[in-house]
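look at this record:
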Amino acid sequence: MSIRSFEGLQRADERTLRCLPGGLGVGLQLRPEDAAEYQQEVAGRFTLDDRVAEGTRNSYEHLRTVFAYGVLCYEIYTLVGDHALLVIEQALRDRFVDFHGGTVTFIDHIGAEHHVAVARYVDVHSFLRANRPPRGRQCWRLRLARGATMAFRDGMLHDLRTWARKAGLLRGQRNHGIERALVELRNFVAHPTGYQLYGPVEAARTLHDLAEIINQLWGASTPGGRLYPAPTRREVVVMAWSTDGSERITVTAEALADSVDPDDRPWQCIILRAVFRPDEGYADPALRSYDSRVEATLYPTDLLWGPGTITDAAAWYAQHKTQSDMIDHLDQTFLIRHHDDLLCQPVRPQHAAAAPCDAQAGTWYAVKADHPNDAYQHVRNIVTAAGCQPHGQCNNCHAETLNVGPHHTATAGTLATVPLPPDVATPWAQPRAREMPA
């Protein structure tokens, strides 16, 4: 190791200076003072909820503080990224103690309950080590809310992640895979097999993911988050198209005032509540494929009015002035029908329950997923024996099968049925059913 002077330790690392806001600089670099400000802004984008336990909060703040010194030493980003993975387990432990309110109930192999006083998570480990189940006996079971239980083997990270899911603290079907990957990365950090070097981008992403996980454990979603985002705002949107399908206009409803139909050719118009904020560069990419009877858009989209003329749409909106709302798209339930050799597009449970008798035959799959296409691909893989699991959480994709059976079985538990919406589809909508290979 070469000994550097104090002045040398204060010199900015050129590798960090080349990490520009727009990407890696080729022939360009930031001034040291600009790089220091920028990297601190990156680390400060996400903050923790006020309910987060003090120990977890302090560990996270330490990481954000040290992150800024990557301007002087590029290797700090690797240390921050690695340690952030270790703090995930600390957050789970702190939340476990907080969640159970000082008393954890374990059930032994004969069904007897043991109430364990827990002030710190080390008390859980002490109980498990001192009371190992007899050889050949099943492991301890942990009492959850509403009478549910789960296997609790050694209280390590796998048990804690499973507990957080069972307790409903973590959500999102796509996040199942991300959470598994973070656990594997944490194990790699705890038991390394080689050298690795992170940059500020990788370290910042891990730090931001850590903030989202911590906030979600304490019941707070993250506005603009990658993993557990806060509900998304839906606007009142007008979509109009010429009857020959050659032209299409999509605008927010405010632009509808005093609009009238063109004189040269007829147009169709509908009013939706959808994710559409083009001024922010954020809009549902599948909105043009809207179909009122199936879930064809990336985010839930509701038909408010139509179809009809643009003139009538303007009059309806002027009278009703419908407002925007918020929608949470994680962990939606979709129903998918497989009949003969046709696989139908996903529908909402209430729409499936309202399906006419001649559209109820076949096998119905109730699937939990974040997006309708995730649910459809999951069922497609089941039907074509392409590897997805037909029951429970799938380890090969981002979906969970809740129920499989005839129509009355799949729709059981649907609290309320509503009339089917008017049958409306844009000229660019996908077929409602597709033929499956034998």
The chain is about 35% helix and 20% strand.
